[in-house]
Write a structure and sequence with these properties.
Length: about 350
């Protein structure tokens, strides 16, 4: 009985590895990184640092699940971080003009403005047949240029209390008198992650996004609305960017026009590291989470070790380069190939 149980367990693990090889390896690397940093610096494996790490990573995780949907659909978006800054300014000025607003108004406005910005990208890509990276490079520069022109680079500090008040979800007093705190962005991030998981794994739209990303022409032939897929993917990205912008203001307690500038490559590196294929048709929410956390842990560890922040940018560049190089390799088939073929090869020898 124990042999049968052990064999069943082995088959179960092989099946998991076959379908989620990237996630398994990434989880293993993340675990090794955490263990290594725990021995390298005593500051890393503390509740305060881990909570701070999660609070700070929440914004990138919200961005990441939005970008995941775009990558699954075969697109790419590098304008989302600047788009989030545009959302911040438009929502902040609107709410101030209306006399203060509320969380409900803030979330609604942020989502709607974000969706509108995403729809601009989708319209250019679908109706003018321009590849997504070219479109989003253009909108990245257009959004940022317009933002800096109209705001003159001036930050907004006089924000409503509901937006800037620190909402603590969980707190624990440390022996040294400091507090380890989990804040509102973590909860919002969890909701966004769950919503994205439902979308891509448990809806017909999600299945169509995978099919479209894997084979656009084949998807069109079986009746999938190609235009709708573009609008859904980039609209979801825009909505996540808007919500992330709202949460970033709550975290930083100010609106700064260039605060998000440069985050797009960090998030892109994390998502492709998590297994999303730049060619489309592949990617999971779990891999996305692991990728973001590995990048965050790497950055946090380098900071604690006193390494130059430029080293982190180098790591991000290497990750993107490697991800592009190996994105089409099926690691599961290499690790667990067809045993019959191997047996035949051995027999011929």
């Amino acid at each position: 009985m124990s042999d049968v149980s052990a064999h069943s367990t082995l088959l179960w693990w092989k099946e998991i590895y076959r379908h989620q090889a990237t996630e398994v390896w990434l989880g293993f690397v993340l675990l090794l990184a955490c263990v290594g940093l725990s021995f390298s610096t005593e500051q890393f494996f503390t509740l305060t640092n881990l909570f701070d790490l999660l609070n700070a990573s929440s914004i990138n995780l919200i961005f990441a699940v939005g970008l995941l949907v775009v990558l699954i659909a075969g697109g790419i978006d590098i304008s989302f971080a600047v788009g989030a800054s545009v959302v911040q300014y438009l929502v902040a000025t609107t709410i101030i003009d209306l006399g203060g607003g509320s969380w409900a108004m803030g979330v609604t406005l942020s989502a709607l403005v974000g969706i509108a910005l995403g729809a601009i990208n989708a319209a250019l890509i679908h109706h003018f047949r321009i590849i997504s990276i070219v479109v989003t490079i253009a909108t990245f520069n257009a959004f940022f240029g317009l933002l800096m022109f109209f705001t003159r680079g001036v930050s907004i500090y006089n924000l409503p209390d509901w937006w800037t008040d620190r909402v603590i979800i969980f707190e624990h007093e440390m022996p040294n008198g400091s507090w380890a705190e989990l804040t509102l962005p973590v909860v919002v991030m969890a909701i966004c992650v769950f919503a994205t998981w439902i979308l891509v794994r448990h809806t017909n739209i999600g299945r169509q996004l995978y099919a479209f990303g894997n084979n656009p022409e084949g998807a069109r032939r079986i009746g999938i609305n190609i235009g709708a897929m573009q609008y859904i993917a980039f609209g979801w990205m825009g909505m996540m960017a808007g919500i992330a912008g709202l949460m970033q203001v709550n975290y930083a307690q100010e609106v700064v026009p260039n605060a998000m500038y440069g985050r797009e490559l960090d998030v892109l590196a994390a998502v492709v590291l998590g297994g999303a294929r730049l060619g489309g048709g592949r990617g999971t929410v779990l891999g996305c989470i692991l990728g973001v956390m590995l990048v965050a842990v790497t950055q946090n560890g380098l900071n604690l070790l006193g390494v130059s922040p430029y080293a982190f940018k180098m790591v991000v560049g290497i990750v993107i380069l490697v991800a592009i190089s190996v994105s089409n390799i099926d690691w599961s088939s290499i690790s667990f190939g067809n045993r019959k073929d191997l047996a035949k090869g051995g027999a011929h020898e």
